[in-house]
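Researcher: Let's try something more involved. This one mixes different molecule types, so please make sure each is placed in the same coordinate frame as the others.
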Amino acid sequence: MKLFTFKGGVHPPEKKLTQSEEIKEAPLPEKVIVFMLQHAGSPAKPIVEVGQQVKTGQVIGEPQGVISAYVHSPVTGKVTNISKVNSSVHGMAVEAVTIEKTASDDWELLPKIDYLSASKEELIEIIRKAGVVGLGGAMFPTHIKLNPPKPVNTLIINGAECEPYLTIDHRVMIEMHEEILLGIQITQKILGVKDVYIGIESNKKDCIELLEKKWSGKVKVVGLKTKYPQGAEKQLIKAIIGKEVPSGGLPSDIGVVVQNVSTMVAIKRAVIDRKPLIERGLTLTGEGIKRPGNWWVRIGAPISWVINELGGGFSEDFDEVKVLMGGPMMGIPVSSLDTPILKGNNGITVIREQERESTNCIRCSYCVHVCPMNLQPYLLDMLSRKKKYDEAAEIGLLDCIECGSCTYICPANVEHVKSIKLAKKVYRALRGGKK
Amino acid sequence: MKLITTSAPHVRTNDSTRKIMLDVLIALAPAVVGATYFFGLYALVLSIIGMLSAEAVELFIMRVLKKDKNFVPNGSAAVTGLLLALNLSVATPWWVLIIGVVFAIAIVKHAFGGLGQNIFNPALAARVFLLVSFPTAMTTWYKPMAFFGGWYPADTQTSATPLAILKLEGFSKVLESTTYTDLFFGNIGGCIGETSAILLLIGFVYLVLRKRIKILIPATYIATVLVISSIFNSINPEKYGSPLFHILAGGLMLGALYMATDMVTSPMTLKGQAIFGVGCGLITMIIRYFGGYPEGVSLSILLMNALTPLIDRYTQPVIFGRRNG
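Model: All components are placed in one shared frame. Result:
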């Protein structure tokens, strides 16, 4: 099989502990904490009151501004609290609605449409109403992504799953390929594109073989080299169609839209099953979890509940742990186990902190050679730490995708990603949000 | 349960600066064995003094002068000390080596900010410093003895290096006293660590396999020497010597494989590394052919060290997505 890829990247240990674990339906959590910001853009505004009874799938937050998304109740229950909660994931205080489950699911479904005869606008509206966002992690509102500023001719489905440990996309592709295909067909109709590719890393050979058979003639299945960050949007496009998204631009600038496999399932369930996005698949994994597995979980379930109820608790001898939202390369460490599952949460990884010995940069140039964006991480790090933000911007500060390949490979254990992330924030603030 | 929230990525390679330095020391081990074989036990003593004194000087600077209580030796000083020792004649008194080590670590490395911050290769800069401070000791050469033959080569065997013979007496005179086999295996006069091409190459292969070396630098350096010496050889072989001779003689192998490739003082991009290598080759040959010294490896690398920041600046890679704009 011919495998495609991009230039640069690293090979962290794959550690796919759960790749043959079937996705299990989690029980309903007794309590959910639903953030009003589970998407890129402005937070939604709560439209429920404390004490109010809500149904599963009922709108509890309405979008504000151009880029925003609906938020729905993941359970049937009573609103017990609405307040700002400090969130380590967002890096700020975010409004959250707490709901206690009072009964089993009583659904409030989305309006019914016939997806075969519905117009593009009607389909986009249902997806908007369903609060669907990119489930690969970026959480960009899907209804906006499906209405690109420029006409597109190619749809690329992201099944790369290059993060170590995570296996949920793998399992979704195996177990829900029929739903993904329906999602793809709806998306194709909205975008008006004929060419559809799905990119899958070679460590998921079973997926590649299965989908080549099942989707033959409908979707081109592309095998990708197992290399991190193969699933990063720009690197995925480069590997599959050989084109580079212009710096500061969007995939639609080169006629492409990229969607994650799980987002396809969410689109299918919104349009055909009339269900808003209130649950998703995630991988609960890492050496710090007693029973790693793949779960279908309600959004808003607290991580402590996920770890104890679904994962059997922390492993023995794990007194100091890192609990990550996502995988070990780009995952965000949570500072509280009350943090709830978000729409973009493809995994909870519990691992130990690795011992590190750091020195000054010794200019080995490893970071320069692994950077998938062809940047000079050592220099960006140095300029960022010296607060020379304009100089850093000149050599591509904002082009950095924060994949962490440089920091992963660095023998001196320089914290490039940390300083670059901070510099980006400061630079954007100084520039008043303008690029 | 204590939650740790340090920054991503949360997995790292188990690599470290210390492991890189250890690999370089391992790669130089064959050359140290060769030095002992050809020049006696004193060559081994010089190598050990170089490493230990360099680590001691660095430890003193970090702990006492820079007041860094947490400093743990990482082996980078030992590499400098060993390279300096290997760049000396066996006629060098041990205390001259220590003066060189202090200069390398204190002035060339730490006065410029310490590990990773120095502009010049500390071992090379110290070698040139010793060359001007102790010219006699630094340019007295002994013929090698075979088979670990004792403490020190006998006085009567002083000899000029093949490069010096070429400069003064012509290439046919070189071939009277030296064969290519001698040059390849190291059975000639010169610095204790530079004479054996084969032993240096063995270490080099190790570094390549361990991905510890900016491989384009020695490749372009040696290729440039090959091209220039081929051209001049076709003009006047007696005056300029053969290409193979120029590659095997003097400090070229040691310089190209271990000194020019010093991570700290060489460029970061592939294009920059190629420019660096070609520049070293050019300057080396200009000095060998037309300069006042018979050998130009040290000076060429130091000159290119000075240009490294400039090379880095002008060889920045094209950022992803900016190729057409």
